[in-house]
Amino acid sequence: MRTIAFEHVVDAVGQLCVGCGYDLPQDVLAALQDACEKESNPRAKRILDQLVENARIAKADRIPLCQDTGLTVVFVEQGADVKIAPPKDTPAATLIDAIQTGVAAGYDQGLLRKSIVEDPLNGRKNTQTNTPAIIHLDIAPGDALKISVMAKGGGCENKSQFKMFNPTESKDTVADWIIDVVKNAGANACPPFVVGVGIGGNFELSCLLSKKALLRRVGAFHTDTFYAQMEKDLRVALNATGLGPQGLGGDTTALAVCIETAPCHIASLPVAVNIECHSHRHKSIEL
Q1: How far is CA 178 from CA 161, 235, 259, in A?
Q2: In the chain, where are the structural domains located?
């Protein structure tokens, strides 16, 4: 059994949060640069140029990519043969506690905006720590601990949707609904987008899959050729809508569409769409 110190997890998560805030992932930056080269609309091309320049300035000057530094979503794969050693003064502390502590530390050290309210309806008082984070924990074979942090802005998150289709619906019907969801997101979700789609499972799993899909490298496709082709076709269709960067027209509405799937009940066909803006911030580490 391998042991990882509580403080090591705290430090790693804090660094991931700061990295998310300042450094646009290379795959996303490359997709923006490629879109800029291919964009035929002059205004859209200028916007894409500005987005690339924004990423350069944020990284060089260590300032946030966006003023909305997001709700922290954390995906964890904990090896079955690894455990967390809690601090001596708090022996009951867990991996979850380490992650929450790391998020609070990272947002404080990185001077990142704290955006979390402790109650959704009654007062909406800010927690002043950007916690609690949303944490998804899976157990995997081995003795590694993999942590992925995503800073999810409110504008794009608010435009995400779920629908329970009849199981007899066709691929085209599902695709048309996905396109409508993204089109209706419009300028409020800050295109160009990375679009996560979850198909299958049940109500909550399809939504989780749509968010987990956003961790995939931009430019990588589903391993199943059926869904890989669906991803490609959806991206072409979305870019043909003309919504464009910041919703002001152009060829570039979606940088990528990523689909994740799961088995589902014979009577169900759940589909969820989770939208990410052009500032698609996520970082991973394996301890």
Answers
A1: 9, 11, 11
A2: 2-19+65-152, 154-286
Residues 6+ apart with CB under 8 A from 144: 77, 79, 82, 286, 287
Which pTM was predicted? Answer: 0.95
pLDDT digits (tens, 9 = 90+) for 111-124: 999 999 999 999 99
User: How far are the Cα atoms of 6, 39, 232, 267, 279 from residue 82, in angstroms, in the given order?
Assistant: 12, 48, 39, 39, 33
Gyration radius (Cα) of the chain, Å: 19
